[in-house]
Design brief:
Blueprint (H helix, E strand, L loop, with lengths): L2 H17 L6 E6 L2 E7 L2 H4 L6 H13 L7 E7 L3 H10 L3 E6 L6 H4 L11 E4 L3 H15 L1
Parallel strand pairs: 3-4, 4-5
Antiparallel strand pairs: 1-2, 1-3
Helix pairs in contact: 1-6
């Protein structure tokens, strides 16, 4: 299994969000090359600004494993996590984060004012399937204008 395979699964979640008229961000959590949790943005449906794809996927992963820490897990998310999600990811002690598109407006790099908001042992890979992830976001906002 490759990063591209799991990012494709996260993109499927993002497309579900798109179809539900949510900002199209999707996430999956993987342990031992197996998806244990999925999530997509549900802020409109739940009327909850914290219902981001990462938060939903992390909560499902905690419940799946019966643990509040995910040191052996990888989070695949289609868009750079925001500052709120970066905080949750930090506390999860997740082993690895893989994301697709940068979020220049709301991503952690802009709002955090720091270069590394994640746990010190967390590995980060950026830009996996960046074009596909970015295109979905652009299409969503183009339709909204």
């Amino acid at each position: 299994m490759t990063d591209e395979y799991f990012m494709t699964q996260a993109l499927k979640e993002a497309k579900r969000a798109f179809e539900e008229e949510e900002i199209p961000v999707g996430a999956v959590v993987v342990v031992n090359e197996r998806i244990i949790a999925r999530g997509h943005n549900m802020t409109e449906r739940l009327n909850d600004p914290t219902a981001h794809a990462e938060m939903i996927a992390l909560t499902a992963a905690f419940n799946s494993l019966g643990s509040k820490y995910l040191p052996d897990a990888t989070l695949y998310v289609t868009v750079e996590p925001c500052f709120m999600c970066a905080g949750a990811i930090y506390w999860s002690k997740i082993g690895k984060i893989v994301y697709g598109a940068d979020d220049e407006k709301n991503g952690y790099k802009k709002t955090a004012g720091i270069n590394w908001p994640f746990h010190p042992k967390t590995e980060l890979i950026r830009g996996v399937m960046k074009d596909e992830c970015s295109r979905l976001m652009k299409d969503f906002f183009k339709n909204k204008r």
